[in-house]
Amino acid sequence: MKRLNKLLIAAAAVIAGIAIGILLISRSGGDNIGEEEVRAMVTDRYGGEIENISHTEDGQSYIVTLANEEYRYEITVSREDAGIEDIITEKNEDRSSDTASGSGEETSEETSEEKSSEEKTDVEKDSGQQEKEKTDTLITEDEAKNIASGEVGGQFVHLTLNQETHPQQYQIIQLVEDDDEGALVTVDAIDGEAMNILWFQADFNEIADIEAFARQLQEYSTQYQNNYYIEFDDDSGDDGSGESYDEDDENDNDDD
């Protein structure tokens, strides 16, 4: 009789363990953000229309493809906490294509004399100018990302190419620590030199428009010296700029 009681108690314990395991699995699965929530969050932040939503290979994140009038985004969103893990931004070329197709008729109506003049102008380009074009070849976006990562570490967030400067510059935003500390690394797009690093503290989850935020950081980067630190304070309504510091000061603090 005692042996039977022990067997019954053991069986009950196994059944209870299985039930608890099923309950934990169902709860953990229920905590993941759903596809509709991802759609609403991404559309609210970036506007435009969602073209496609898929999962990463490990199934832990969503990959959302979205486009508005100016830009096309590929955004990786964590299923667990809805955090933005990666953003790839491309200039939307649809308008440029429409403009090009609309001007096709005018191009076809050019006179033979105008074409001859243009061809003559092309022939007259000297070798010095051609050599300059070779010299001005830009480094790739991947090379710029690697340079930024080598300077500050962390995780890639956003990249833009500033074509209004000479030389042209890549502006790369890196998430350096947790969810609230990052760096804007300015890289010479010709020779790959890291020109300036702007450190900042801001809640990445509260950034609704990453393009606007990137432009704001670029403005600060042109105003302040290398390794300047800015603390964005949503409560005060201003940028909350802190004091600048150089690498020697930072190294001294590490030694202490």
TrEMBL record:
Residues 84-97, 113-136 have a biased composition (Basic and acidic residues). It comes from the Bacteria. Residues 84-139, 230-256 are annotated as: Disordered. Residues 231-256 have a biased composition (Acidic residues). This is PepSY domain-containing protein. It comes from Salinicoccus sediminis.
